[in-house]
Amino acid sequence: MKQDKIVIVGAGVAGINAATKLVDNGYPGELITIIDKGSDPHNRLPEEVMTGMLGAGGWSDGKLTYHTAIGGQLSKYCGEDKAMELMDQVIANFRRFHPKPEEIFCSDPQEEPEFIKPYFGLRMFPVWHIGSNFLHEIAKAWYQYLVDKGVRFEWETQVEDIDFNNNRVYTHNADLKYDTLIFAVGKSGIDFAQELAQQYNLPDEPKPVQIGVRFEAPQKHFQKLIDVSYDFKLYHKFDNGVSLRSFCTNNNAAYVAVEETYGNVSYNGHAKKGEEFRNDMTNFGILMEIPGIEDPFEWSRKLVSNVNTSGTGLYYSPSRRPSLTSEGETVSAVAFSSRELEDIIKPAFQGYFKYIEDFIEDMKKVFPTLENDWGIYVPEVKYLSPEPLVDYTNLALTTFPNVHFVGDALSARGITVSGAQGIYVAENILSN
Ligand SMILES: Cc1cc2nc3c(=O)[nH]c(=O)nc-3n(C[C@H](O)[C@H](O)[C@H](O)COP(=O)(O)OP(=O)(O)OC[C@H]3O[C@@H](n4cnc5c(N)ncnc54)[C@H](O)[C@@H]3O)c2cc1C
What we know:
This protein is 28% helix and 25% strand. The protein has 11 helices and 25 strands. The chain has an 8-stranded mixed beta sheet. Strands 7-2-1-11-25 form a 5-stranded parallel beta sheet, covered by helices on one side. A hairpin with a 2-residue loop joins strand 16 and strand 17. Helix 1 packs parallel to helix 11 and helix 4 packs across helix 11. The radius of gyration is 23 Å and the shape is globular. The N and C termini lie close together (11 Å). It binds flavin-adenine dinucleotide. Flavin-adenine dinucleotide (FAD) binds next to helix 1, helix 2, strand 3 and helix 11.
């Protein structure tokens, strides 16, 4: 039987798990070429966080979330049971190449505190902690295994173009023919993925809007919950599909940060390490996911533009003033009154601001000392890149069935889901 020549673009967790599944099951390694613009694990520097063997979080962080509600889309493609089984395989691979697998541990918070329950869900999920200090050794052992199996690697080689019609991958000095392509470029290749999507007019799946505000208050009001869950994720879902969640919680030395995207200001937050930065504040996004908006990207951009005033975003608080950034400057924002809240903010959110108000009202019930001691920076936004439309059975592009998209280049946002998508594709190739 003829076997395909497989080219994998990206040696991140998705690409590496795909190759491993293939060779584990007897696929000839000599038929697999992996191209990566970063370095092999012996030459990759610790600070090269985004590119090289094992990709982004597989090199520098290594917390493997183990739940289908987190880390991006997986069960949508293959169902809940299969998704968990695929994630098990990813975790088993990290265990297998780990120099001290007995040191891997799982944190699995179980109990949602009673005082939260009447008003919010609290998202809790198991996480396997691989140990960031072991990741480089894992990468080396894993790489050696694939090399021994005959897999060819091309490091420090950026793929610059792909001809989907003639099955060719172009680097700066060569071109390579493939029968099957696994496209696994992760976040550092997202612009390249967008270019290809435009060039080939790839159909995509609409993504819901994610927009809201950055909420800030003294930490003491939330301490009871922080003691249970440091990066707490409060959650609300309404019957019409609108859902809200607290996102990216920062504590202790927590600062609001100004972001500029597409020429407009929006907000985010970060925490600093070190006692000298302590400000005893908490901040987090309150992000709404709104399904059914026709052109979510344009809709969000217009909203963001409408709430920008004098070249910056807005701040509202019943009692406080904007805080200082970690550089000691006032966070750039135009403070607005409750009248302007009615006249500017609410119309810009087209009726959806009431969900944010509800969320804050419920927080005031759950955290009774909060009262009016809070402020919001408007807006916070996540522009979700369009997700290419794939055949759910094998993650192949609907218009180019020999090209499979996996990992962050598709819809993942985490190590376990990305690796699982790679394995899912490999299983499909093996079954053919
Ligand atoms: C600092 C950091 C910490 C993180 N920590 C965690 C964590 O603890 N847990 C978690 O679940 N998730 C974490 N993540 C997210 C997680 O790393 C990603 O979701 C995951 O790595 C995606 O896997 P991937 O294989 O799709 O892409 P990546 O792992 O990003 O790999 C993509 C690879 O493609 C290569 N590439 C890109 N473009 C090209 C091109 N044109 N030509 C050739 N090669 C190319 C890159 O060099 C890279 O090696 C973290 C991310 C970062 C940045």
